[in-house]
Write a structure and sequence with these properties.
heterodimer; A: 138 residues; mainly alpha; 6 helices; 0% strand; B: 121 residues
């Protein structure tokens, strides 16, 4: 039996959020390096996934590793939390992906007021969901 | 047509990834927090929920990557936000979790926020 305290579950959740964010960013950069955009989609896109250049393969491997570790931490956290709380709360990784996409030089996406409003709305929603999860446990 | 294919792939990914979340919760219950004395690995490989998790998340990720070859991640990632509604609905219907009005409102805000981000990109 694996017993996870509520505090440990919260820490595992946080680790999972960070790992998921890193995985998403690794996938994003990897896909930027492919010629997948030049194909017709469908089978061509699949073929271009197979013939990726070396750096992209490394990035995909890093992304998959982060996903794997994230999943272990996630399932351990789920022993304590409702999935209808934990999964919506995972959207906090949008905030992290946004910050990274704006500030990391090789992604250079632009910041905007509307995106910022989206972030604020997500944070408000996650707060509500987290509070509702806390209440249901007491 | 090509973009339509990508958005169809994105829709399939959302359903598969949401189903994967439900399967993971079952794994957490049946494997991690179980009184079974067998090793974790042995419990995992004999668990239908574990195999379903691998299948749903594996196929879901494949469809997600396929969608990403056509759709900007900054647009696709927020659309994936619909999976929050679907997962919450599945959790209520399949797992019997109690979803308060408060929690639904939070999920709605999250989806709205994701939509705002999608519209901005």
């Amino acid at each position: 039996v694996i017993r996870v305290s509520r505090r440990a579950a919260a820490q595992l959740f946080a680790a999972s959020v960070v790992l998921t964010t890193v995985a998403q960013l690794a996938f994003k950069v990897a896909m930027q390096q492919t010629n997948a955009l030049a194909g017709d989609g469908g089978l061509d896109a699949l073929a271009s996934l197979i013939s990726l250049p070396g750096p992209a393969v490394t990035l995909l491997a890093i992304g998959l590793l982060c996903y794997g570790l994230s999943m272990l931490a996630w399932i351990a956290a789920l022993t304590r939390f409702d999935v209808s709380v934990a999964y919506p709360a995972l959207s906090i990784s949008y905030v992290l992906v946004y910050i990274a996409a704006v500030y990391l030089p090789w992604l250079h996406e632009t910041a905007s007021l509307m995106k910022l409003m989206g972030i604020v709305t997500i944070v408000a929603g996650v707060s509500l969901v987290a509070v509702s999860g806390d209440r249901s446990k007491k | 047509v090509e973009d339509g294919f990508a958005y169809l792939a994105l829709g399939v990914a959302i359903v598969l990834l949401s189903a994967g979340q439900i399967a993971q919760k079952v794994v957490a219950r049946q494997i991690f927090a179980s009184d079974d004395t067998r090793s974790l690995l042995r419990r995992a490989i004999t668990s239908a929920a574990a195999w379903m998790t691998v299948f749903f998340l594996g196929c879901g990720t494949l469809f997600w990557l396929l969608a990403l070859t056509r759709i900007e991640v900054s647009a696709a990632y927020p659309i994936l936000g619909l999976s929050f509604v679907l997962t919450t609905l599945f959790a209520k219907l399949i797992l019997g979790e109690t979803v308060s009005a408060y929690r639904w409102f939070g999920v709605a805000l999250i989806t709205l926020g994701a939509t705002l981000m999608a519209a901005a990109s």
